[in-house]
Write a structure and sequence with these properties.
The chain is an alpha/beta fold. It has a twelve-stranded mixed sheet. Strand 9 and strand 10 form a beta hairpin. Helix 3 runs antiparallel to helix 4 and helix 5 packs antiparallel against helix 6.
Length: about 325
């Protein structure tokens, strides 16, 4: 606190200005716009406690149009540009039920306003495409090239589609296919498409959606339930090869996981290498913070798996067949 006061008195640091009046005006203007059911703001200007933010929350009508949501988004971005909220963490959350369109604009100017407005339209179209699902979309955010490097970083579009009961892996495949066909402009973002709780299965992507070949393998390993299990596929996960096929067994017996791997690895290995395959009693497998696997079964087809455990003879035979690190 003494440092902050000293900097303020010497003119070396400017405390964030009080923007409550401007925030209230913006909230009121948005509240009166077509398609808006309710709007509220949460503004804090307590620099000493590290709490300086402007968060706007907007509830919209079920039948809101793309033009109406685009206008709300444009009004928010125009206000950020015109008023300036230096030092404030800013965010706009637009909701309909559990559905969400968010703009986490952060502390720095947003340089891709047209793209954000277009993605507001995309969110309305996504809800029409998947009317029974819960759809979330965080808009792509870019900042000036000279913006300070801190926690407030740019990011691509981040979306989630949670399918309703009794959706299964087939519905996940259909949703991914529709997303790629109808919304190619969003494919390079990050996505999680999830089946229902009754039939768990999910696909998580970054930078691209799965290919038709990858979806074909996904369908095949999901369909074969001679050993009961749940499947997840991840595209471009950190610290893994480009594709990670993860299988979770109902049993906690490692021998069951090894048997599942023995059945499904020949199918999974038809995909381009390298590919990471795991069969354990959890979908995220047993991996530490550095990406090393700490318990069986983990195989990298056409590559080598960092391990902190000694494979048993059965898993070692699979390693000898599918991995290439010792060849």
């Amino acid at each position: 606190m003494l440092v902050v006061i000293a900097l303020a008195l010497t003119g070396c640091y400017r405390l964030p200005p009080d923007r409550r009046a401007q925030a209230d005006q913006l909230t009121g203007r948005i509240r009166d716009m077509p398609g808006v059911v309710a709007a509220s703001s949460d503004l804090a200007n307590s620099f000493a406690q590290g709490n300086v933010h402007l968060w706007l929350s907007v509830q919209v009508a079920e039948d809101i149009t793309a033009d109406q949501l685009a206008a709300i988004t444009a009004r928010y971005l125009d206000d950020l540009r015109a008023v300036d909220y230096p030092g404030y963490q800013t965010e706009l959350d637009i909701r309909r039920g559990w559905n969400l369109f968010a703009i986490d604009s952060g502390q720095h100017p947003v340089t891709n306003a047209d793209q954000v407005i277009a993605q507001a339209r995309d969110w309305v179209a996504l809800r029409h495409e998947f009317p029974s699902a819960t759809v979330s979309l965080r808009a792509t955010i870019t900042h000036p090239a000279d913006a300070p490097v801190d926690a407030d970083r740019a990011h691509p579009a981040l979306g989630a589609i949670e399918l309703p009961e009794p959706a299964d892996y087939i519905a996940v495949t259909a949703a991914v296919t529709a997303l790629g066909a109808q919304f190619p402009q969003l494919a390079s973002g990050g996505w999680t498409i999830s089946a229902s709780k009754a039939h768990p299965a999910d696909i998580t992507t970054s930078q691209r959606l799965p290919t038709s070949q990858e979806l074909g393998v996904w369908n095949t390993v999901n369909a074969d339930q001679t050993i009961p299990h749940i499947d997840a596929m991840t595209i471009n996960a950190p610290l893994t090869p480009p594709v990670w096929m993860s299988e979770k067994t109902v049993s906690h017996d490692p021998a069951i996981a090894t048997a599942l791997a023995d059945k499904h690895l020949p199918i999974v290995a038809t995909l381009p290498a390298p590919l990471f395959y795991t069969a354990t009693d959890q979908l995220q497998a047993h991996r530490n913070y550095s990406g090393r696997t700490t318990a069986p079964v983990a195989i990298t087809t056409g590559g080598c798996t960092p391990r902190d455990y000694r494979p048993d003879p059965t898993e070692q035979s699979l390693i000898n067949i599918y991995e290439t690190c010792r060849r």
